[in-house]
Amino acid sequence: MKLNIALLAGDGIGPEVIDQAVKVSDAVAQKFGHEITWKPALTGAAAIDAVGEPYPDSTHEVCKNADAVLFGAIGHPKYDNDPSAPVRPEQGLLKMRKKLGLFANVRPTFTFPSLLDKSPLKRERIEGTDLVFLRELTGGIYFGEKGRKDNGDTAYDNCVYTREEVQRLAKKGFELAMTRSKKLCCVDKANVLETSRLWRETVQAMEKDYPEVEVSYEFVDAVAMRLVQWPNSYDVLITENLFGDILTDEASVISGSMGLMPSASMGAEVSLFEPIHGSYPQATGLNIANPMATVLSAAMMFENFGLAEEGKAMRDAVNKALEAGVVTEDLANGGKAYGTKEVGDWLAANI
Amino acid sequence: MKLNIALLAGDGIGPEVIDQAVKVSDAVAQKFGHEITWKPALTGAAAIDAVGEPYPDSTHEVCKNADAVLFGAIGHPKYDNDPSAPVRPEQGLLKMRKKLGLFANVRPTFTFPSLLDKSPLKRERIEGTDLVFLRELTGGIYFGEKGRKDNGDTAYDNCVYTREEVQRLAKKGFELAMTRSKKLCCVDKANVLETSRLWRETVQAMEKDYPEVEVSYEFVDAVAMRLVQWPNSYDVLITENLFGDILTDEASVISGSMGLMPSASMGAEVSLFEPIHGSYPQATGLNIANPMATVLSAAMMFENFGLAEEGKAMRDAVNKALEAGVVTEDLANGGKAYGTKEVGDWLAANI
Ligand SMILES: CC(C)[C@H](C(=O)O)[C@@H](O)C(=O)O
Ligand SMILES: CC(C)[C@H](C(=O)O)[C@@H](O)C(=O)O
């Protein structure tokens, strides 16, 4: 297969972890006879510094014309103090999601047996946890009309959803559930919000098309509790943008393997793959960041092209590295810590 | 002191736990020379069954004219299947909050040394946890305009906040912080929402009036993570209605003492006190529900009247019962389980 991949390294540790994912992907491509052309493009604070824009049109062109986007991380402390400043790395992220139509954010949370003890939760609570959130990513209160009235003394944000937006996301949820344990949980606040009632009635109407899938409906506050109590009781969860923002972050810490969690944002035309961790500015350039989440994001990318074996080869390499203790300092547990680059080299050599 | 207390027992186990709180409060009143007149009134499913309304005007009259409201729990399974039905117990709750102007929901989360092992989190993560959420309760997306367009295919919920609403809640937060460790965390999503930017700028402008309070600003998704990672790093947190709904529920499970957590909802004129747990319909009438959260809510009520010693007497009785193992089955740990009523009797006798 010939693959054109847009490469958005971004800020902080982004470039370092992206380099390793490229290296491991190239090793996979070589082994399985694919050809990858990487198309680097600017984003985040790096893009603001260079051209005054966190998601420049030139970057959008590269992404739009690529078969997929591999993304590092964005965010820089110099933009942290004023969340209302008009030019911020996050604005670029939202613009990118909207312009590329990345409507479904896929966030798996799973455990690695060797890392169970890193979790803040007790082992018996998390053993076997393997869940996936599908978060709607281009609608809701993030993109509704917002502004001020009364000389700035009143602020508003409008949350809007259409039936189509819900169907599109829910369809992905049902399909994913069919490939897993056939359990789907729709997370909403239908006892208070009209948008949630639209979500619930839309998903209810789709149940008949997937008779094998067992669907449950839970309120977002209840899920925020049960995620901590019994994360392993969930499988596929679908939810709207803001609830997804909060719950996927909550879920990411319970597995104890946050530095290893990949994600995908699927669009109708192009999809994007990125680690869930941030740009970790303090670690920039120190060769200490864990590249595994980015490598596993690249594995999701291969799988999304239908290249299951290729994805599995990358996952297997990560598992082998974890077993062999070829890990960065966050996972070293007092043992030997390898550098970002050394872990990348080892993974590439073990494909 | 002469106290008029509206008594809203509600549904499920509500009446049983309320009975115990009344008993213990009466013991306190007798010991300290106060006189309490209890004014029972209907609410929740019980009120729907009786008069077709979850928060009837007659109940509102009782509450408005009382010095405080003691509340049990509402919710009944027969209303669970259709969250869009117009008459539901929750509708009564929202109406009550709005009509009584209960704008600040106070939700402490603290640990009992003897119950640390009940938490899903590891002991070292929660030891010393003692935080309080102040959740705004009468504004935001709960009460903004909501509805449908496009023949029902588009739904919307408007989130609105005024500077005054934020100030009123934040003032309570600063004042509470002054009586504790002088640390205040404002939880928002100011990188995305205009209402959150209003929250942040309003709180920032108030900092100068409380020079001793150290204020931090954190995004709601980050707090959802850190609450599980290091709950004991927080003290007072203030936030808007929906974020508060999600985060206070999340926080309630980490202490391991959920069945013991009280809450208060403060208004300009009258305030309401209730356990955070629900109506637990399966346990109705079985004399197994834990009454301690309701007793501790009554303790908050006394303290809110400035009767600190009275509140302390109730807390001390609960602590003594926990140490003596006079507990309901949820805390019995395989040991002897006492009935709801027996625990109430013991607490009253130990005032
Ligand atoms: C940076 C921010 C705008 C973003 C979001 O809220 O979507 C982030 O929290 C995420 O989840 O990717
Ligand atoms: C029942 C529901 C409307 C309510 C809320 O969302 O406020 C409940 O979850 C709560 O937190 O008291």
TrEMBL record, chains A, B:
<feature type="binding site">
    <location>
        <position position="249"/>
    </location>
    <ligand>
        <name>Mg(2+)</name>
    </ligand>
</feature>
<feature type="binding site">
    <location>
        <position position="107"/>
    </location>
    <ligand>
        <name>substrate</name>
    </ligand>
</feature>
<keyword id="KW-0460">Magnesium</keyword>
<feature type="binding site">
    <location>
        <position position="221"/>
    </location>
    <ligand>
        <name>Mg(2+)</name>
    </ligand>
</feature>
<comment type="similarity">
    <text>Belongs to the isocitrate and isopropylmalate dehydrogenases family. LeuB type 1 subfamily.</text>
</comment>
<feature type="binding site">
    <location>
        <position position="221"/>
    </location>
    <ligand>
        <name>substrate</name>
    </ligand>
</feature>
<dbReference type="Pfam" id="PF00180">
    <property type="entry name" value="Iso_dh"/>
</dbReference>
<feature type="site" description="Important for catalysis">
    <location>
        <position position="189"/>
    </location>
</feature>
<protein>
    <recommendedName>
        <fullName>3-isopropylmalate dehydrogenase</fullName>
        <ecNumber>1.1.1.85</ecNumber>
    </recommendedName>
</protein>
<feature type="site" description="Important for catalysis">
    <location>
        <position position="142"/>
    </location>
</feature>
<feature type="binding site">
    <location>
        <position position="97"/>
    </location>
    <ligand>
        <name>substrate</name>
    </ligand>
</feature>
<keyword id="KW-0028">Amino-acid biosynthesis</keyword>
<feature type="domain" description="Isopropylmalate dehydrogenase-like">
    <location>
        <begin position="4"/>
        <end position="347"/>
    </location>
</feature>
<dbReference type="GO" id="GO:0051287">
    <property type="term" value="F:NAD binding"/>
</dbReference>
<dbReference type="InterPro" id="IPR004429">
    <property type="entry name" value="Isopropylmalate_DH"/>
</dbReference>
<dbReference type="GO" id="GO:0009098">
    <property type="term" value="P:L-leucine biosynthetic process"/>
</dbReference>
<dbReference type="GO" id="GO:0000287">
    <property type="term" value="F:magnesium ion binding"/>
</dbReference>
<feature type="binding site">
    <location>
        <position position="245"/>
    </location>
    <ligand>
        <name>Mg(2+)</name>
    </ligand>
</feature>
<keyword id="KW-0963">Cytoplasm</keyword>
<dbReference type="InterPro" id="IPR019818">
    <property type="entry name" value="IsoCit/isopropylmalate_DH_CS"/>
</dbReference>
<keyword id="KW-0432">Leucine biosynthesis</keyword>
<keyword id="KW-0520">NAD</keyword>
<dbReference type="GO" id="GO:0003862">
    <property type="term" value="F:3-isopropylmalate dehydrogenase activity"/>
</dbReference>
<comment type="pathway">
    <text>Amino-acid biosynthesis; L-leucine biosynthesis; L-leucine from 3-methyl-2-oxobutanoate: step 3/4.</text>
</comment>
<comment type="subunit">
    <text>Homodimer.</text>
</comment>
<feature type="binding site">
    <location>
        <position position="135"/>
    </location>
    <ligand>
        <name>substrate</name>
    </ligand>
</feature>
<dbReference type="InterPro" id="IPR024084">
    <property type="entry name" value="IsoPropMal-DH-like_dom"/>
</dbReference>
<keyword id="KW-0100">Branched-chain amino acid biosynthesis</keyword>
<dbReference type="GO" id="GO:0005829">
    <property type="term" value="C:cytosol"/>
</dbReference>
<keyword id="KW-0464">Manganese</keyword>
<keyword id="KW-0479">Metal-binding</keyword>
<keyword id="KW-0560">Oxidoreductase</keyword>
<comment type="function">
    <text>Catalyzes the oxidation of 3-carboxy-2-hydroxy-4-methylpentanoate (3-isopropylmalate) to 3-carboxy-4-methyl-2-oxopentanoate. The product decarboxylates to 4-methyl-2 oxopentanoate.</text>
</comment>
